[in-house]
Design a protein that fits this description.
Number of helices: 7
Order of helices and strands: EEEHEEHEHEEEHHEHH
Number of domains: 1
Strand content: 15-25%
Shape: globular
CATH superfamily: Spore Coat Polysaccharide Biosynthesis Protein SpsA, Chain A
Distance between the termini: 25 Å
CATH topology: Spore Coat Polysaccharide Biosynthesis Protein SpsA, Chain A
Number of strands: 10
């Protein structure tokens, strides 16, 4: 599992902790810990890319941390850094799938990951990436990919591009089956509360989760 914890989080203003957005506290836990603990039941290990090195967790979780190779270059570069690390460390035992997640999704859970894996076309080896659609938006930062996505991503970034939408478009132009989108009418049945779209970008977002009535 790759958790993206970089970025300046400037929109949080004075609510931004010294350790970055990943260290924002909700219910007594950092966002990074919430996301890690929610997803670790379906992941062998956690790789945090960007931000400060994570603080220790109260229960054993295999967590590794690497820095952004190109800070402030955007999350697609951070995904590339994470996939490169996986290739270096696991070349003899490559995972079949890699979970991608932002660090600021406090409502996600392992059941949603299992649903994404269930929708990964089992007999279609050309599929590299499964992405849920929430409303009209593709949620790139809560998705599942194959480690081999790195090859196309390296080429895309080398050309000077850096946005998710353009990368998906390029993949689909090259091979239509490379990206499988879980259509909104399907995903809304899986995630009726839109948990994978409820991120934290502003002080108001953070306040909504830290009020006593927040869930």
């Amino acid at each position: 599992m790759i958790i993206l914890a970089g970025g300046q989080a400037r929109r949080l203003g004075d609510k931004r902790p010294a350790g970055g957005k990943a260290e924002c506290t909700v219910g007594g836990k950092s966002l990074l810990r919430i996301v890690s603990e929610a997803l670790v039941p379906v992941a062998d290990s956690v790789l945090v890319v960007g931000g400060d090195a994570p603080k220790s967790f109260q229960r054993p979780i295999s967590v590794r941390h690497i820095s952004d190779s190109q800070p402030e270059s955007g999350p697609l570069h951070a995904v590339r850094d994470g996939l490169r690390w996986i290739w270096r460390e696991h070349i003899c035992a490559m995972p079949k799938f890699v979970i991608l997640s932002a660090c600021d999704l406090p409502m996600i859970n392992s059941a949603l990951v299992l649903e994404m894996l269930r929708h990964f076309p089992k007999d279609e080896m050309l599929t590299q990436w499964v992405i849920p659609q929430v409303g009209s938006r593709l949620q790139y930062l809560f998705s599942v990919c194959r480690p081999t996505l790195l090859h196309s991503l390296d080429s895309y970034l080398a050309a000077g591009a850096r946005d998710f939408h353009g990368f998906v478009h390029e993949l689909q132009n090259f091979e239509p089956k490379s990206v499988h989108i879980i259509d909104d009418f399907i995903w809304v049945k899986i995630d009726p509360n839109g948990c994978v779209a409820r991120d934290i970008d502003t002080p108001a977002d953070l306040t909504a989760y830290t009020k006593p009535t927040s869930h």
